[in-house]
């Protein structure tokens, strides 16, 4: 019996060692491993499990300290120190918007763990006071069927770590969360509704440096689940003719005219994806490519707008990649 136990243990140990080494142990390049390496350091926005940005303090939000939830009541314009005019709820708690959402049509991309840190504000019974145009109020249906308040089309949230009225700890978290201005824009960026659609489009155009800093983001696709987008909102894909264990690359030469290898990112610039899944691999031409759970990832030239997934299930070989590095499901 002891001998059998030793044999079982030995087999298990070998299996663990093979799994650990597999990610970077390919002989695809003349016996030289592509050496998947961590990108940058191991820090991420916030700390601990707060994958959507921790703000002050970092870490997971303790139970019982999840901030105020429920309807906004009569919203008002408050003067937030360092920001200026921002929208607060009837009890003075700061309200927020998320840059990864869309206002036309209204859509929330904050679900799951994100929604625990950024509770959606119910549309029920919302009203306004001086300084906010009632015509800007609306609602959007979330994936769970509830109605979320919108202002100028932008879904509205609270931040779980705001402990008292007037707190604005969520401002700037992840570079994508902002206190809500009276006109739907981020507070401090022209909160009043001016200039119509043209002005709104200008506000949504991010400087190149800011877009680059965004890195990767996990977003909810209503049909495919949680997908990964790059800083420009392009869906990332994996290829069945590649291999993660051992790592091999099957998309070379003319293939890369259509499927562009994604560039590596710093682990600190990922939102909604476990940092330990982020790596990089050296391609045959010597360039470096982003990997997620050891799978090389690509963008598709056929995707024209942010959030497009036209490359999914292409020829039964290309699939949008999930936040876990898996293939997104195929919808008939």
Automatic annotation (TrEMBL):
Residues 1-24 form the signal peptide. It comes from Streptomyces avidinii. PANTHER family: BLL4220 PROTEIN. It comes from the Bacteria. Residues 195-209 have a biased composition (Basic and acidic residues). Keywords: Lipoprotein, Signal. Residues 177-215 are annotated as: Disordered. This is Lipoprotein with Yx(FWY)xxD motif. Residues 177-194 have a biased composition (Gly residues).
